[in-house]
Specification:
seven-stranded parallel sheet, alpha/beta, 11 helices, about 40% helix, about 280 residues
Length: about 280
Amino acid sequence: MAGTHRPKLGNLAPPGPLHRGPAVILVEPQLGENIGAAARAMLNCALTEMRLVNPRDGWPNPAAYVLASRADPVLDAVSLFNTVPDAVADMHRIYATTARHRDMMKPVATPREAAAMMRADMAAGKRVGILFGPERTGLDNDHVALADVAISVPLNPGFSSLNLAQAVLLIGYEWFTAADATTPLVLDNAYGGWASQEEVEGLYRHFAAELEEAGFFHNIAPKQEAILRNLRNLLQRIPMAAQEVQTLRGMIKALALGRPKRPPYAQRNKKPADPS
């Protein structure tokens, strides 16, 4: 069995401690470009150990580096094996990716479920490997038989084929996000800080004063209180940055200075008296 190596990632390493993830085992990959693209997908997801089983065009392969972008350290640390049993000999738990049903009794998990299972396996001190088959045919039944769990991606039944890098990225993404603490939804605050209650209140008072000055309430005085309450509610409901509040106040000021005070609506539509 060939030795396995850890890549020297330098500034390409993800923040925080890099925990050793599952080994990505490419079985008889055909194109060097696909190996490179798979390495790039791996490093996107903080997976760093790639094992190759009998690559068609040999190894090392310069074509792999063309598609790897900056994931060269993953390729530099590739381990080469002649057979799948050799590649998984030091593993405790094997997962095999497959796009079709096999004539064997074996648990079949979605990528998300498999990622959770792999996390649990590795937390228990087990070494985990994920098998990916050749681009044209995928894994054969003998390879899948070596696995403890099969991974099947729920896709369009009429067209479920993935290329090698896509499959690696999809499984890798689920692995990475299974332990990622990123908030699912955040507002990207590009303006340097949220507006305080005092700033939002200032916007409301500015808005209300200019509406009054413009004669907005002349013909709807009974509704004024409700309208102002709705305006306050609107401004409170929208998360705003301090800079956005200042921008809105500048807009209101510009509109107010640029227009003379208008008479009430009834007066604007009143016809002038006949001079005769």
